[in-house]
Specification:
Strand content: 5-15%
Strand order of the largest sheet: 4-3-2-1-5
Helix content: 55-70%
Order of helices and strands: HEEEEHHHHHEHH
Largest sheet: 5 strands, antiparallel
Protein name: Actin cortical patch SUR7/pH-response regulator PalI
Number of helices: 8
Pfam families: SUR7
Number of domains: 1
Region (Disordered): 240-260
GO biological process, one term: fungal-type cell wall organization
Oligomer: single chain
InterPro entries: SUR7/Rim9-like_fungi, SUR7_domain
Number of strands: 5
Shape: elongated
């Protein structure tokens, strides 16, 4: 019979570890999970003969850019990955335009630049939280391996703590991504309406990051419940010394007096 109390927390930690790695490293290369962007900005109506790309897909540690042909994307490159990455629209667009013009002359709304700058500090923290969460999920797996080798209990407080801390670390960037999807993207669409600048959020990214959060929550709860059940079971079956009777106490006192 499968002992789910022993296997499930480690299994959830392993899957969350993989999902976290995918979320963190998506878009760091031109062939790596390009559909798993946090959000994408489209600039098709301001990019004619200027060098500005049709789209800029923003990921946790980088951004990728390219042109649209019908419904297909023609990717031209990705920025170098950085743990503290925040998309700089001014730098990206002016560089593509040959650094020979300003964003206002391209028809880029200054309000969107302000939006990106304001939200940059928050989005910068996503990579850090993912790294910590991934590390804690990996730690939970190694802890289980150690206790298996040492023939320890099914689950320990250390493992439950690692899983719950990892759940917390994954939750923070997931919440940030959700705010991007529900608030920030609509803000860009509103400010860029007259200039034809639009944005959309990444459904796949949201699905992956919240799946990792849910798995770690389930794993942490199962691990904690297993610890509590095993402790209660040990306490229930722990032998208790029987109290001495009056006769036994009298015999003990008598033997001590004879010895004196």
């Amino acid at each position: 019979m499968i002992n789910w109390g022993n296997i499930l927390p480690t299994l959830t930690a392993f899957i969350a570890f993989i999902l976290g790695m995918l979320c963190l490293f998506a878009g760091t290369k031109t062939n790596l999970l390009l559909d798993t962007d946090v959000f994408t900005i489209y600039t098709t109506s301001i990019s004619n003969d200027t060098g500005v790309r049709d789209f800029y897909s923003i990921y946790v540690m980088s951004y990728c850019e390219g042109f649209l042909h019908a419904e297909n994307r023609n990717l031209t490159g990705c920025s170098p990955p950085s743990l503290l990455f925040a998309f700089n629209a001014t730098e990206a667009l002016t560089q593509d335009a040959g650094n020979s013009t300003s964003l206002s002359s391209l028809g880029w709304p200054s309000s969107i630049t302000d939006d990106l700058r304001t939200f940059g500090a928050t989005s910068q923290s996503m990579g850090v939280f993912y790294c910590i969460g991934i590390g804690l999920a990996g730690l939970a797996m190694f802890e289980r391996l150690w206790f298996l080798i040492a023939k320890g209990p099914r689950q320990t407080v250390v493992e439950a703590s690692s899983l719950m801390l990892s759940f917390t670390m994954f939750s923070i960037p997931s919440i940030i991504a959700t705010v991007i999807a529900l608030q920030f993207v609509s803000l860009i669409n509103r400010h860029g309406k007259e200039s034809g600048v639009t944005a959309r959020y990444g459904h796949q990214f949201l699905g992956m990051t919240w799946a990792a959060v849910g798995l770690l929550l389930v794993g942490g709860i199962v691990s904690l419940l297993t610890v509590l059940v095993d402790r209660n079971r040990s306490a229930k079956y722990e032998p208790v010394a029987e109290p001495k009777t009056v006769a036994e106490d009298s015999d003990s006192v008598g033997s001590n007096e004879k010895g004196d």
